[in-house]
Amino acid sequence: MNNNKVELLSPAGNLEKLKIAINYGADAVYAGVSHFSLRIRAGKEFTFETFKEGIDYAHARGKKVYATINGFPFNSQIDLLKKHIEKMAEVKPDGFIVAAPGVVKLCREIAPDIDVHLSTQANVLNYLDAQVFWDLGVKRIVVAREISLKDVQQIKKHLPDMEIEIFVHGSMCFAYSGRCLISAVQSGRVPNRGSCANDCRFDYTLYAESENQNTLFRLEEDPGVGTYIFNSKDMNLASHIKEIMDSGAVDSLKIEGRTKSPYYAAVTANAYREAIDDYYADTFDADKYQRELHTTKNRGFTDAYLVHRPFEKTDSQNHEYAISKGSYEVTGLITEDEKHFMCKYKVYPNQDIEIFPPRNSNIVECDNEIGKIFKNEDGVYYINFKKILTETNKEMESVHSGNTNKIQLPGTLPYLTMLRTENTEI
């Protein structure tokens, strides 16, 4: 039985998302720099300088940062990879997330003081493979998404000192643990080198060809079935956190999504933080966490394979749409001075807008000529603007996303607080 408190690990696509994840409940975040990370588009949002800034920010708050070096290099890249590992080691992350055995060996040689975590891309499903990587010096394994909880327990039984991390939320790859070639074939973007074009999310028209008759027939789909034939639903294991924690085999719960929105980073960190804390307090309430998680954009949710065998699953694909709107829209993000917000959607006067603050925030109510901050009967805080004033006191009838003016608050709100409204367009 694992007696240490389970870690909550969140994605950090850039410095702002790193700060959001930490302030909304994550114990640790993972992020990357350059082409050796499997999220090149997200990784480009970090430079070595901002990555170090993020590590310093996390460490000052007692949190951890794991650096992703989980691409699969070609021979021509190995010298560059060695230099990259050296440079990443200089900023002192708490661990490297690595997929290839050779890269594991390089990390252990170049930066022996930094823990190595094995990426889910290595597809570990059993204790035999886990033992091989343990012998190579790997401290933690991020098991394959296709693994069962019983098999996780078996790995922990055979390797009690090996840390085990599992994915609990986020996008699911159509292929087996990311082993996909669709993007490479159709657009030349190689998934396991970080540039997946997400071709599985597209809708497709199906045809049947007769080579003998040289004819081509378009197949008609049944109404409502759609043509998103490769599209997996998103993983959501919030309702099963108690079972996972009861197993005693899991050390870290991981959320996918370095390319997702700041709001996604906040909501998922907050919801799973509550789930973990409530578990230890014996007040677990799955419905509460699901209400929050459903406010994010998603492709529909599935509990995936951890608690079910793959052949028992009939609801893991979404044939109708690539992604849906969540039940809430983010209308604003509070700036660092805590006196203004930047508009992210649209804000009008005399509109009650919910305040979604970082954890353990202190909200002070107020009522003045600009507006009011108040708490309703359910204990939820709201803001209502009587006037919409820019930083330079220019009054506006409304403000919409794309407007780069800071908008005044009637009082102060904590940095990174989000303002949100129910989405009326779904």
UniProtKB/TrEMBL annotation:
It holds the Pfam family Peptidase_U32. The keyword Protease applies. One of its GO terms (molecular function) is peptidase activity. One of its GO terms (biological process) is proteolysis. Keywords: Hydrolase, Protease. Transmembrane segments: none annotated. It comes from the Bacteria. The keyword Membrane does not apply. PANTHER family: PEPTIDASE U32 FAMILY, TRNA HYDROXYLATION PROTEIN P. Belongs to the peptidase U32 family. This is Protease. It comes from Poseidonibacter parvus.
